[in-house]
Amino acid sequence: MKTTYTSKTARAALALGAALALFTALPTSTAYAANGTFFYHSPESGDLEMEDPDNGECYLLLQGADSASNQTDTKATLHFDQGCEEPAGTLLPGQSKSFGAPIPHSVQFG
Prior knowledge:
Strand content: 25-35%
Shape: globular
Distance between the termini: 52 Å
Strand order of the largest sheet: 2-1-4-7
Largest sheet: 4 strands, antiparallel
Order of helices and strands: HEEEEEEEE
Structural class: alpha+beta
Helix content: 10-25%
Number of helices: 1
């Protein structure tokens, strides 16, 4: 009877190890791209867009954005600084917004 118990324990441990290996091999959320286009208007450069931006990546908004439209399937967090550290607000999928001074200079998706 002791052998049966050890055999069941070994099989359970093997199954758990295999599940853990599979889970750690899956890509993280930063590997996925938002589907759609993020549009913004720069006071200096005019109308600009980002197609299917990667989640988790910090994107520079060329010379800042005085308006933005998130037409992706992922939340976009705008930031006042160029390094995605000072949040300026969030645009959910389908939302648009105009900004006064100060204007955001970077955006991150996810």
